Fold each of these.
Amino acid sequence: MDTQPVSRRNFLKVSGLTGVMLSLGLYLPARAEEAEIINTAGTANLGTDMNAWIRIDALGKVTITDHRAEMGQGSYQAVPQIIAEELEVALDEVAVVFAQGNKKYGSQITGGSSTVRGSYKNLLKLSATAREMLIQAAANQWSVPAADCYAEAGHVIHKPSGKKANYGTLVADAAKLEPPKDVVLKKRADYKQIGKPLHRPDTPLKTNGTAGFGLDKTLPGMLYAAVERNPRMRGKVKSFDDTAARKVPGVKHVLKVKMLVYSTYREGVAIVADSTWAALQGKKALKVVWDDSGFEHLNTDEIYKRQQEALQTKEGLSLKKQGDVTDALAKGATKLDVVYETPYQSHSCMEPLNCTAHYQANKVEIWGPIQAPDWVQDSISKEMNVPREKVIVNMTFLGGGFGRKAFMDYPHEAVFISKAVGAPIQVVWTREDDTTQGPFRPGVSYRCEGALADGKISAFKLRMAGQNLGHWMGAPKDKPNDSTDEGFLKPYTDSIKNLSIADVPFETPMPVLWWRSVYASTNGFAYESFVDELAHEARKDPMTFRREHLPDERVQKQLDKLAEVSGWNSRKPGEGYGMAITECFSSTVGQVVKVSKNPDGGVKIDHVWAVMDCGWYVNPDTVKAQVEGSIVMALGAATQHEVTFKDGMAVDKNFYSYQMPRITDIPPIDVFIMDNDADAGGVGEPGLPAFAPALTNAIFDLTGQRIRKLPFSLATV
């Protein structure tokens, strides 16, 4: 075994090479799937436009860059675990760092459950390329064929002789090599790390307090800001009296501010102080007069009344149409025409919004819990008239995101204040700010019409009325919401000959935004509840009925597994079982919920079974945790909390009225993962949509009561 002893000579030799590094990344000229692997050491002087994911220094230390945000969903583990597998290093022996915002990484938006499914193939190839370059470097040093060498545990080993070289001793030579164009990837059966329940590297950091969240950032001379924002987004600041606020010890500045929310500037007044406490006290003492003229001040009841009137009178913009739905509805032997209603929701992340910004003459630097650093760069560059390359965005850990922290408003506000006062600023939102300001998940109403013939669906007509996020982002208003069918399995469309899915345009002044699983979170409730109602009208078992309308082998296997693990075919009288199956972000999740009557009244949830088909996946524990978390979030949205409006303002301000599920509310949850050779799908969001319809379908099975409006109380069913 040639292990190169650590002599004084070798120590001096290695310490003198610590600046030498093998650094590999992906050049992304257009789309990630077109990526080219590049050795930065060999091309740095040529000005290659790329960034590195893998760095190995002369001591053999491996540093892996996570180009996406970590908000609990597991990218801090998934990206390194993918790279460590083909690189042949142990996950617990590598350092992980967050990338700064930079388009050279491709899209950095952590949303749409896209981190693994959007990059895993390139990352596998990248790490295999690094491994092969190290093997080639060792083969060249030993004057042996590369085919006689292999990599293992951060070393290259020569099979015939047993010679062994640490990666650190090879990087100087490997950095001079041209990356091979083609590398052979492992078969899944040969994985040592991928597919295994490895411990998450961020867990110790989060339990011992060393993980850096947005609020942990401090800078010399930093001040703190709290902002009194107009409770109606489109309102303006008419005037303000800061006399009492300026008397609060520590308050330094009081100023009118703005932040861009889509194409509208939300106005407010900022209190800037030498501590967060002083800023908050100054905010309480501030008196503001708002100008809220020129737009409607709606109540919740009026919003849903308008939605449902529109569903009764308008056909909407067609997203998908096949066959002749009108004729099939007219001829159907059995017909249904029902309306479902889903509420507005707050994101209510455990960590409220915050951002630290420092506007300087030659650059802007930002630190915070940010889901989309590249989007923030674009936005700040445009709004502050600063070259994009001078906008530096540093990601921290996020205490939850759910889409809210992929928005650009709160970083803009922080930069605006920093420029105004000439100092680095940390802006902290209170829970009340976070809950009432939005943007919110849109509340949506659905009209579902269907007909049966010979026990199967002969017509299926779905119309959705809710605010279109695309319209807020500038999409043409004569085009339907392209997420109107999100959550609805494609195999349904293959089996239902007469189908219509349409978007009935609907607008309010309330700001809306993505929320975990986006429109699938509301669509799934309506569509899978309606399928269940049709199954009942057809007098068929709900599982059997879905099987008949989902002619896809992969889905059929998933339903087999769902029936097996839930004991669907051995249900007993007096037990309520409901099921639902939804698809979003290239993954399908089926769920069964079991309920029973609560001795104290209402019903209780006894058990939840979920079967996830996400194709290729990294860590089964992460998959299960994400599905469990999605179910808990879905439980709250279905049975406990909603955002309501009065006079155009959010009524619910904090957890005393916008109540979260407690640990005692959570039933036993079992999660199962389908194994197959399909491409990777999303994990962080697809587990949510199926829960609400599975729950309400179970309640119908137990009580005969159909629930078509969310949220509802389990205690009063």
Amino acid sequence: MRLSLLALFLCAGTLPAADWKLAPTPLMTKWGKQITPEKTPWAEYPRPQLVRKDWLNLNGLWDYAITKKGEAKPSAWDGKILVPFCIESALSGVGKHPTPAQELWYRRDLDASAWKGQRVLLHFGAVDWETTAYVNGKEVGTHKGGFDPFSFDITDALKDGKGELVLKVWDPTDKGSQPVGKQIENPHGIWYTPVSGIWQTVWMEPVPNPGPGPLYVKRVQFIPDIDKGEVEVLVEINSDALPVTAEVTITGAGTQSVQAGKAARVKVPNAKLWTPDAPHLYPVTISLTREHRAQMMREAGETVSSYFAMRKVSAGPDENGTLRLLLNNKPLFQVGPLDQGWWPDGLLTPPSEEAMRYDLEMLKKMGMNMVRKHIKIEPARYYYDCDRMGFVVWQDMPSAINRTKKHFIPPGAKQDADDQFTDTEKKQFNLELKAMIDHLKFFPCIYCWVPFNEGWGQHDTNAILKWTKEYDPTRLVNGPSGWEDRGYGDMKDAHIYPGPGMFPIMKDRVSVLGEFGGLGLPVKDHLWKDQGNWGYRTYKTEEELRTNYHGLMTRLHPLIGKGLSAAVYTQTTDVEVEVNGFMTYDREVMKFDVADMAKWHKTLFGPAPEVKELVPTSETTGQTWKYRTDAPPEGWAKADFDAATWSEGKGGFGSKGTPGSIIGTEWTGKNIWLRRTFELKDLPAGELMVRFHCDEDGEVYVNGVLAASLPGYTTGYTEVPLSAAAVKALKAGPNTLAVKAKNAGGGQYIDVGLVEQIPAKK
């Protein structure tokens, strides 16, 4: 996106760097270290889906002040803040958090005098949360929403094209009812440092103001139809007072005139389809003309540029009749990370587009084809980069807090009923959900919408999912991602840590694994905090981490053969005290060998191995076990141990409400011991694995020999390899499977079986 000479001239002036210095932070990225107030941050054109020639970037040093809520505009300012970085971030130069009892003010001068005779639009990429804007003391607009872009026409408030811009921002963070994502006043665990105020690019641009009024493009939308070789084009303009024609020129497909404000279908001959391996984009130029029929004349409006892709999102059966995620009518297994987009120096704002793109470049090198953008909306250029680089994006709606209990639902907690939101809270959530879809539905990379995650602020679930599907029928809608499923949605989404695992295949919904893994490795000198770091499993060396990740991929592969259509690993980078990223939080250390990862991921797209059940779990039918909850005598796991006095019950064993559990026998005590016998006609030749769901700290024995240790807890069924000693202990004929598990707090559950993994024939 090239700046015009006018834009370069307008951007040339830089506010003085007095009173600004980097705020304290535990970590910095290499891109953050390059930021200075003398160079405009985020200088790229911020709206790649609708590009105009002339514009003015307003990022840079502004005045700021924090006052009590309700006070008038400050007469003095606290200092300088570097926009577009939020006030809590190191790169803002401030490092303070306004409380819900305070308001954040911004001030800077504007100069649009070079655009005389045109309308001037003021744009904000995102401001968290309630924004009121004043130009020369005149209120020009308000906006509520922390993640979506908004604009004000400020022409009439300017004086000779100039003015003083003042913003007042109020952000209640998690003390309010609005969507906040992972921000919280008291950051800890999986909840992060709050973000207030401006955190995406602020900019101005002129639009034509000819004849009886302004004439410019407000939005463009392209809906491809690869089955008919057409694309539906909609050019929305600012007025429908007179007929307006849009000349749409598609590179490689010619020019066609369409009526602005009305959808029209345009042929795209021999269409090149967009895929992750070949992400072809069609450049587009749009020129407006207005018809003055009474005067028998045509009036030229503006010319803008855009793009689109020919691709189709759907779900349908594969050659075996299994329901799959499809791209361009073909099954596409989707593998990628949970991508939260947090930065140690910029928090929600990446230090630069180069930094933001680096994450995607590394994921591409790892052989991944999708990202789940987790409860955050990125700058528009992120999605443009995904379009260009070939990433499928699952887009989460930023979560609201749980209003009934006044806090977030913690990981692993069960929410049997939807939360109760007030009508006002529902209205705001719906407004921000609609704003997200309106903003992002342009981008071809968006594959599905994810309105809810794990019960966080989950309300009116199926009504909201159905509305989303009807509002954008061109994409899939993920049922709640996690364990709070209500029976609706194109996908049924399991979260299983460390996993992997899946829901059984269904006739009407696609089985996906929306979160798994979370394998942690703290890297000294690259930590947000030296103590209190965590992962779902934490290792001490890179070798341990890589071996266990490879094991996850090995166990994931057969699930694809069973019907699993996508897998989302947690996560791209470490975030604050979470250390389960592919990279450290500062992006300085890659914990894996990228070439090895690419090989492991490539295998997932080949023929899947067969999985043969040797000893069934209780997932579909409750299996009979002998059990006891007081400590048994020594030798309790051996094949010849007499367990005649033990109680008998159906698996699985646990307490109601434990995520992913299928209770056959209630177990609420501290410890449990289990035994059962099974027959093998012949010794298996494939790789043997324990299939289990354990909460928590389990041990599995085969004929008295330790077969697997199951530390920590899982949130669903998964597999681990049998030990070599246990494989040797197996025999044709009767065998004994023995299990011990304990409850250290929270949910509790244990169910175990054995499976054989047989490699696919080449």
Amino acid sequence: MDYLEKDGIRFAAPLVEFVDSKCIPGSGLTADAFWAGAAKIFKEFSGENDRLLQVREDLQAKIDAWHGANPGPITDHDAYEAFLREIGYIVPEPEPFQITTANVDPEIATMAGPQLVVPSLNARFVLNAANARWGSLYDAFYGTDALPGEAKGPGYDEERGAQVVDKAKSLLDEFVPLASGSHKDVTGYKVVNGALEPALKDPSLFAGFTGLPDNPDSVLFKQNGLHIQVLIDRSTNVGSTDPAGVTDILMEAALTTIVDLEDSVAAVDCTDKIDAYTNWLGLMNGDLEETFQKGGKPLTRSLNGDKDITTPDGKAKTLQGRSTLLVRNVGHLMKTEAVLLEDGSQAPEGVMDALITNLISLRDVGPEGRRVNSPAGSIYVVKPKMHGPEEVAFTDRLFAAVEDLLGLARNTIKVGVMDEERRTSANLAACIKAVSGRIVFINTGFLDRTGDEIHTSMKAGAMIPKTDMKGTDWIAAYEERNVAIGLACGLSGKAQIGKGMWAAPDRMGDMLEQKIGHPKTGANTAWVPSPTAATLHAIHYHQVDVMGLRDEIAKKPCPSLKPLLSVPLAKDTNWPADVVERELENNAQGILGYVVRWIDQGVGCSKVPDINDIGLMEDRATLRISSQHMANWLMHGICTKEQVDAAFERMAKKVDEQNAGDAAYEPMAPKFDGLAFEASKALVFEGAVQPSGYTEPLLHAFRVKKKAEQGA
């Protein structure tokens, strides 16, 4: 690859061309000024980045040594906690404080609703997610198992349609009840003197209409901060049979979307990164489009416009038509070939992300910015995989340096801190304090957090089966502490407190039953795997007044560190052989099913069948927990290398069968010598020595080899 030197730092020529031709125009910067500033930032922050990574390794070595000297379950928790404080793993708790974050859009600060995470490399998925601010409730019920049964026949199933309409109007009766009667019996909606007829039990829930007052095209309601739009059109198949002419009900759904450069993408070289940045640029410009085949015909998708409505008092108002977008940069660990430092080594990829994604975001918040994604004038960056407050403070300083380069006021770049590493969980208040002027997001995530839990205490002993992890004391403390500490630090009304992903996009009935638990915790967002899931999850935020719950939740005592630091070790490891085999197969199948797409096809997130053929939306976090669990059992003699090898070979055959319909798929059996199979095993056999148990270093190395094989 050709490089261009800028003040001693070498930047890949394709990256320079992309920035100069696509990102600099309209930014208010010159190319020379940007590259000079970028070179200075790489010189200033790269060494510190490496030092922080070494701190991780040093702490891990001390913890490994402690467990070597104190093997098995921890019996003296006070001594264990004192040790963690002595080595600096746990830092002193800060004095009570409140965050000072300002200029935050309501979708993040004051509203409660679903959040999507979408791989930045897939333009079609990105557009679907950005447009998922409004979703059809009729479609979500009609085509999923959210209602019992399923649609029959290739055409419209009137029986299923009637079932959908009945359920949807029951929800209207629940959320925006009429003064008398049911929405099912309404023969027409109209607006008279600023009020809806038929009258609502609570007239304040009527938010507006489109069309003419006496013959509206739609009427809008607003409850718990979220809109519901009832569409009226008697010319459609559905509307012509509906007493009121209702043809659909739209839910305000995905308030926010994280456009992901990290766990859900396979971006391993400069070309991949430019492709990802290009989609972020299209979103900030508002001109991203994607043409694809659907039903044998080309279809072009672009970003939805806003909704123009008339308020009850007759005034014009515009509602956001798209999800508010956050961009997830990579963490501190990985390096990039796109930038070479003065000594010829690769530069931190996270520093490059900070520079390029925020430069692109000037299209929205810069001097000539559109102010479409963030009318409040902020850039929202989610930063994953930070370990403790020192690493969070590093990000704060990095973002400040980028703001200075881009001519932005301090704290224009907001940060979302993902609470997915054990050292961050144990020091969450201190982490929030380190970015108290720019924090807009904290969340919990079971998979990565459990992967780090296993790796941190890898040498303590054998862990409990993976499926038992969700019932542990540390998980309960982790989830409760995240919300409690967030509320105590003043995030309510200024930032999001989020919960994790519902991974099964085909099991919407189960999601409707179970995921209401997330808003009940006081979290004002939670991750969903698809726009359809966002539409259905929005129901929960009408059923639960999250903001109203928070005062009571804040009165509850915050769980102490003791349960959070309880290591999930098995007390009795004398499991029957079939239990061990089943656990190994479950982990191996999950690893193979994801890795084979990552390595061979460059797919970082997709619906992957699990061992029971249930499709789950998987990303790298899945690999981290599964590979770390297998590595732990191998280390402590629960299984042998031969058993692990055999499980991988059996499951490779199963994964081959599950992907038989994919023309691009490369079978692993019977030779078991492909790069994807080799990578999957390496994640386990080398898992104990991977930094923090992360999968990126191995995945990237094998994907680079595969791309070379493919001539890509």
Amino acid sequence: MKRYSITILLALLVLAGCNNNFLEKYPLDKLSDETFWTTQQDLQLYCNDIYSDYIVGFGYGFGDATINPYGYTQAAIVYGDVITDNAAPNSYSKVAADEYIGYLTGSSGSGGWNFDNIRTLNYFLENFRRGNVPTETQNMYGGEILFFKAWDYFKKVKLFGDVPWLSKTLNVDSPELFGPRTPRKEVMDSVMACIDTAINWLPSRADAKYQTDRISKEMALFLKMRIALYEGTFRKYHKELNLDGTTFLNACKDACEKLMAAGYSLYSTGKPDQDYHNLFSQYTYKGNPEVILAKEYSADLELGVAFSRYFAQNLRHQFGVTRNLMDAYLCSDGKPISTSSVFLGRDSIQREMQFRDPRLSQTVANFGTYDLATGVMGADNAPKPNIPGLSGNKCPTGYRLAKWFLNDPEDWNRVTNGMQAAPIFRYAEVLLDYAEVSFELGQASQSVIDATINKLRDRVGMPHLEIADIPKDPTLDGNYSKYCGYTPAPLLREIRRERRVEMAFENTRWDDLMRWKAGRFLEIPVEGMKFVQNQFPGVKINSDIYLSSDGFILPYYKTLPNGRTFDETKQYLFPIPVEDLILNKALVQNPGWKSN
């Protein structure tokens, strides 16, 4: 069965039949009601203009636009983790350190509080049935728009909780512009209604009417799964909401089961020491059995992005993996480092990476080595990471990310026309979600674990997770107790560990911390690798770098001496920009944030 990924070739599609007025998204009244909405091509062109707003991948051009309010760059799928406990950017994250003030200085519509795209989506939904186009065709494009509307509102709810639910286009004098926020419960019910209708209207990838490289029923099921797991678990662990999440958990489980029956499988060539890494360094995902949705680029049209150059060739976005993430990887015997007899300790990066889950060496570079065949890790960063005290862009922890590394100087030299493809939805997440939601519903049997977690472990040759013999991890349990105020059951702890390891640097960690009410994990001290002086003879301690009492690099010793903090009274939601509060007196700021 063919597997398809979304290839965004917007320029070609627009040039195929779009006039200049169509390119002007606003004001909407410049679209001619007499001549538009009459053909399938009209509907398709309208939808095409929306794809690039949501299916971003590594971004466009230099790919260095900032995504607010988070503060990371446009390739969010990779860089989103820099605000979590997985990573440490050279200049510490203001969001992670509870120093975010953008809402005080940003203009109206900033910081994620922007409804321009919702207006564009609603305009389509008000007009797409006006032409003499078959209902089935109208539904196909209407399903795409509802998919994007559900995705947009999901992002807004994650940011702000209650948000205005807008079901029609508004004008400058519309009373809804000055109305209060819609309660989270109502918004999420509407989001689920949108995605359910999208699933009903969209064709399956196996249907003859499915158009290659467009949104499919399976992609909508994936989005539903992700939305439902987030909301169901957020409601469970944030008891202050007083909202029951069971309906969402059941919806997640149902979506997972449909996707698990849809013919997807994990990418594997039988090479457990390479397959995980190689999955993330591709030019295309057509034919890949694991990738449900991807963003690809076009060499012919010179539509690309400078991701591979600035990530692989010179680490322009200066950051490093944290020791906290390193410690999460199990040893090759299936036990955590705190209890495993094969763990060699942390005396050097070379020793700590031996006898570990193979995903560790395929995610984090061992002194610049990521490619097992060539041993090369970027022209400016081999054979050692550029820790402070060395020239070049800095890897502040010494743990350089190897995942997403495309070892191809030809692509680096394309600069803004780089062609590396970005997987956005992949089947591994379905397996992880199914394992987690099954536990949350009290249904996580060994057969469930074998069909999910253990399939992921099989790909990399790791021992199976056996419910009857779950290894103890006093260190991780202690962190949960200290920072979260609860200790999850051993099985849930291991399901969450598997998720962190498998999905590292795919921009899921922040959402996981928020929905598990585990934001204070950000307060775990940020440390890097064990510093070995004879490996860096020119680097000066207490000048170039600073070390903990155990000899680990402290990237924020000078800039953030008291460490990161997480205020649980406010930081699970972001603030509404002050200017919007001034313009709309019916809005009330989220708890804990200053209103002026």
